[in-house]
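Throughout our pipeline, every protein is held as a single compact record rather than as scattered files. Such a record has a labelled line for the sequence and another for the backbone structure tokens. The remainder of this section carries one protein's record, kept here as part of the documentation:
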Amino acid sequence: MDTDAQAASAPARAECRNCGAASHGEYCCVCGQRAFDPRRPLLQLVREFLVETFELDGRLARTLVPFLCRPGFLTREFREGRRARYSSPLRLYIATSLLCFSLLAIRGCVTEPFEGSGPMLTRSDVVDGKVVPQEIDAELDEVDTVVGDAFRLVRDKSRKFAQMPISEQRRRAYAGITSNLAKFLVVMVPLFALLLRALIRSRRGFLYFDHLVFALHVHSFWFVTLAMRVVVPSFLDWVVAVGAVVYAVIALRRAYALSWPATLWRSFVLGATYGAMVVAAILAALFTAILDA
């Protein structure tokens, strides 16, 4: 009798829907499939997506204050193994980049994206409204190679872009820079970590992964400052820019436990090298926008 009562009160053994084996926990011990039904109401799916993506379970709130006010703190916490209480560096990077480029896209739709009133590109072969044949055109037309085809494509696309109205030029240039720069940054962040690795070689115990975590944290803050430049008055732009530089310098010192002299010379080399790379990326993004014309 007691045996029957115990059997009746025991929970029913669920079967894995994938392989049919008995499932005793969240995952099947035979095939590894998770024991849950993905079919749920739409609102529940949206809620779970937001929680999983932006970690709206308390970790984001615990991350924001040290992220904004204590440069380098999150990088050191992550390296020392205290990770569960904070948002991961990659999710923080994704969230701040989405915020930044969304605001930039909105700004391009509602306001004039660039200061000034001149065109972004003009045609050098047009004088007083008339097209003047250029010597380089004849030389390019004679080059029957892949390189020649590439130069002719660039020439024709550039002239087509230059013929557009000034407002359309500026709109396309802004849209091209904001959209393409986000793609280039996927490569720029690992390159930033490589530069750090070259500059911090004297500090033992740091792996490339540690430099990548630092790069994600610093770029996340730079995304926040870039987003701030969209919403704050223009006369405060220099304050935001200086704040971004100061944050990176302090973060470098704290994350790697460097002295101030060691921090400053590394910051100068890193800033000059990476700054040149960012300018090159912006020019490449603008060039891509012209080719899309």
About this structure: Residues 43 and 49 are 10 Å apart (CA to CA). The first strand starts at residue 14 and ends at 15.
